[in-house]
Each structure stands twice: as C-alpha cells, then as structure tokens.
Amino acid sequence: MELLDAITAYRPWNEQERMDREELLRRLRSGEALYTRDNRAAHLTASAWVVSPDRRQVLMAYHNLYDSWAWLGGHADGERDLLAVALREVREESGLAAVRPVSPDIYSLEILTVDGHEKRGVYVSSHLHLNVTFLLEADPAEPVRCKPDENSRVGWFTPEEAVAASSEPWFRQRIYRKLNEKLSAY
User: Fold this and answer.
1) Residue 139 lies in a domain
2) Which residue segment(s) compose the domain that 124 sits in?
3) 61 inside domain
4) Nearest residue to 181 via CA among 68, 93, 55, 82
5) What is the pLDDT of residues 32-90, one digit of tens each?
6) What total of structural domains would you count in the chain?
7) What value does the CA radius of gyration of the chain take, rounded to a whole number of Å?
8) Is residue 97 one of the residues assigned to a domain?
9) What is the 3-state secondary structure (H, E, C) of 21-44?
10) 127 in a domain, yes or no?
11) Which of 50, 74, 84, 173 could form a disulfide with 59 if both were Cys (CB 3.0 to 4.6 A apart)?
12) Alpha helix positions (H), 31-133
C-alpha cells in the first residue's frame, strides 16, 4: 500500500496523532520531496516499538546524539517502504537478525522536532521528522549489540521502565506512554 493511502486509512489514537496525520497528509499531497534528507526542513523517518512476543519487554537503544534511551529507527533515505526502513534500522542498530512486524499496518504517527546538531563533523540544521512507527517483535533471548556511531548500549526494559529510561520529557509523556497504551490492543 502506498504511504499516502496507508496514512489516509490510519485511525488516530489521540489528538496528537490526529493533528500530525493532517500535516503528514498535507505534505504528502503537496508533492513536496519528503523521502530524502535533501529536504532540509522535513523528511520521512520510520521508527519501531520493538516488543517481546509476550509484550512484557521493549527494546531500547542509548542514542549518542540525544544522550538518552530511545526507540530505534531512521531516515527513509529514498526508500518508499517505511516498514522496510524500520526493520532495516532495528537490525542495524541492535544486531537483531530475527525481527518481524506484528502487523504490516502503521502503529503510530508523529511529527518530531530535531534540534540543530553536528553529525560526523557536519552541522545539520533544525528540522522535522515526519515519522511513521511500526510495532515489531523480537525474542529478548537473541543477542544484541550496539552500533557505536549511533548508540552505546542496547537493552530490553519492561514497558514502564522503557518510558522512565528516556531523559526526553516530551518523548516520555507524548510518545512512549502512548505506544505502551496501544499495546493492550495487540
């Protein structure tokens, strides 16, 4: 399914998702180039809420850039299949080989602000990540490893611990808690 169709069909969980969905649809319909970082103001990203099969654990990585425990994900970088992006990023950032979607459908939508920062010695201006989140599943017994250029640790947490581990208040309150609340439907 095309991203525009998938977001059109998506039913928002709360007001944040409703508002962000409207803006995502507006930008996609405008024809704005969103699939690559060439658009310095806003571009598409995919994230993953990776859970254990029993839904009692959530995988997080300690992201060097944000100095915080966070979900896994990354830029579309030209890829139009954002589920494939989420799967690729989880594999790259955690070393997990056997990660699979709980559903191919969008799990969550959010527009994320990214402050200006240095990446590999180059300044990146403040911009928006137009983010699509997928619910993925993996076995916590499978070994994980960090990706040193992006994170310094990877680990499993209870859903509540995952929220508390983040040092980013907006993510704790608006994103990670929401993702955990939605787990009850799966």
Assistant:
1) yes
2) 3-55+71-151
3) no
4) 55
5) 999 988 888 899 999 999 999 999 999 999 998 888 999 999 989 999 999 999 999 99
6) 1
7) 15
8) yes
9) HHHHHHHHHHCCCCCCCCCCCEEE
10) yes
11) 50
12) 82-94
